[in-house]
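hey so i finally got around to running both of the ones u sent me last week. sorry it took forever, my laptop kept dying halfway thru and i had to restart like 3 times lol. anyway pasting them below in the order u listed, first the sequence line then the structure token line for each. didnt double check formatting much so if smth looks off just lmk and ill redo it

first one:
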Amino acid sequence: MPSVSTIAQAEEVRKTSPEQAIPLYQSILAAAGTGMSLRQLALRIHPSHDVGARNDQETALLKLAQCYRDLHRPNELAALIHDSRTLITSIPKAKTAKIIRTLIDYFSEIPNTLPLQIEVCKETIQWTIQEKRIFLKQALETRLIALYLDNKMYSDSLALVGTLLKELKKLDDKMVLVEVQLLESRVCHALRNLPKAKAALTSARTSANAIYCPPLLQAALDMQSGILHAEEKDYKTGFSYFYETLEGYSSLDDPRAISALKYMLLCKVMLNLSDDIQSILNSKVALKYRGVEVEAMKAIASAHNNRSLQEFEQALAAYRDELGNDPIIRNHLASLYDKLLEQNLVRVIEPFSRVEISHIAEIIKLPAQQVEVKLSQMILDKTFHGVLDQGAGCLVVFEETPVDKTYESALDTMKNMANVVESLYEKASKLS
């Protein structure tokens, strides 16, 4: 069987030079003995009627796609997906979905290819409609929703979710239904529509309870649950979900495990339990994920523990990519920074009844304008009682006056008396 030896040879060549392996894989995919040039062979992929040879063609297709991925050639990969449709039609339908999704997923490892990936996905969906491959179409539409989400095309995502959910509920395909409902929850969360995000996640969990849920999908559900609980400031429950997520992803060596570990550490910081972080990092599950991203969270925890705004800003600057690129981490750190700034300001102004804003700014090492804005916000939020004298550039702090509860007590007494009178009137009416 010459094709087997060619695959083995191509695999050996690919280990050292993916570029040189490309023609070998193309020759397996194209018709043998047609006298075509290598360029022409690359443009025509002919399925073999022999089962063994067809398996070789499937392998060559995936290996060739991997070569294009490793060499960062998105256009060639897109052309390969288009040209391989003839071969794919000869493959059993159950295999087809996996192969096409794998080919499209290879784009994600090539930088700046999200628009091309969306375009290829749309073209392939049109092809599945023509071929009447309903289940493959739904799988690709699910993938397209995720791509829209990554590209921040939220309205397109929600429109496709609505259409796809109607189809899936008719077919009762629970597995894909769970994936789509989870994606809907993620889209709504990105749009800050938390009630809708929670409702979609609840639906996804209900659907997942009716089937066997694969570990990766279960971990994704736990991750989303943890994120939504953290948004509601329920960091304790969020931590438990992130722990389950970490175990799920870690058991399958999924790279998303590091995100779950970061969110666990974030929850501990937000709960003022920074001392627990070291014990978490020393656990068996977390040890293999030690690296720059974990060091970034440790720096944040240390700054929070020391209540130092300067250390906090230094950590944000030193680990800009690790902390700034994740929207979940970024949002919660912004909230943490505000909280830390507020605590520092309260501590600084506590001994004074009148103090210059420039003096406060000098103590906490921040611009006077930023300090003034934060102080005005704290006054409006009634964190303390005072006014800003902008003419003199001073903060005037008032002593907290005790609240006179006489008025409230009088109202409560009158309300209770009214209830007694009504009760007596009802009893008198019954006697008469």
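and the second one:
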Amino acid sequence: MTDSIMSKAATMEIPINSNGDTGTLPEDDSLEQAAKLQWSLDEKVGSTRGTRDLQQVMVSGPNLNETSIVSGGYGGTAEGIIPTSSIKGPAVRYNPEFNKRIPVTGLGSNMHHSSSSSSMSADDATRGVAVEKIESVKKWGMNTYKCTKQMISERFGRGSRTVDLELEAQIEVLRDTKRKYQNVLRLARALTNHFYNMVQTQHALGDTFADLSQKSPELRDEFGYNAETQKLLCKNGETLLGAINFFVSSINTLVNKTMEDTLMTIKMYENARLEFDAYRADLEELSMGPRDAVTMARIDAAQQQYQVHKEKYERLRSDVTIKLKFLEENKVKVMHKQLLLFHNAISAYFAGNQQQLEQTLKQFNIKLKPPGADKPSWLEEQ
């Protein structure tokens, strides 16, 4: 049908007028309708074929990374060809069921890999911390067991202990000295409290005498003398209280700080001695057993632990010896000064020598606090 229509169109006569111009063609409705029908048929067939080709290309066609894009007009040079592998962007997959394009990108997989790797590293770090804690608890448990065993053996007379007779004697002397100095400190504080109460009583008594001297004209002179005497005693008593407080403060520093620091080092030394004896006994016990491969490995490990604790024990023993020496020198120096202060202040006070008492405080650089300095201010009381 199509061929007949096209042949008819080709054999049609075109009338030409006398001037050589084409004349007006008579309208041929059959030819126009045939052309329109042919055009509609071609459009339907082409669209159907194009849709099928597009589906086949998107489903099983070549990889987009292997294709290229041509830039420029027809017959251009090869410089206009751009490989699609260099174009960055999400890939597209065609779904023929829904006639849609579904983007496929590697970002999700990369994020999944990065998150999984970070989670694995965090798990490894947590696992490492847990293993370290378990190992530390295990070592602490073994060390506690060995030391407890050694302590019980020493207490029941079954185990041997390392003894430094000279150092042990010095430690015992220090502990006895601390007990005696604590007693001196306790008595000095009691004296301070009693003397403070006496000074406060003298101060109140002097104020009472002064008030009575104003209200009793017939005994004005007698009350006035006693008021002046109590005020003078109160002033000297406050000076003596300053000296005694300085004495108490120095003894407290010597006993509760200097001696206590040395005793803490001694306690560490005794713990190191106990650990050293525990690992020494463990090494001796292993050395007396069979000498197979497993036992030899345990002996080597015990030998290393024994050497470590031996070095620790010797180091702390040297520290204790040095601290005991310096403590003795410091104790003699401090007590010589404080005992001289206490003697001179007490003697001057009870002798009624006010100038000597004040000179004693100047000699030892003791500054008295003004009256009411210990009381909190009205702002601090709020």
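quick thing i noticed on the 2nd:
Helices lie at 2-10, 29-60, 107-155, 165-215, 220-287, 293-350, 354-363, 378-381.
anyway thats it, ttyl
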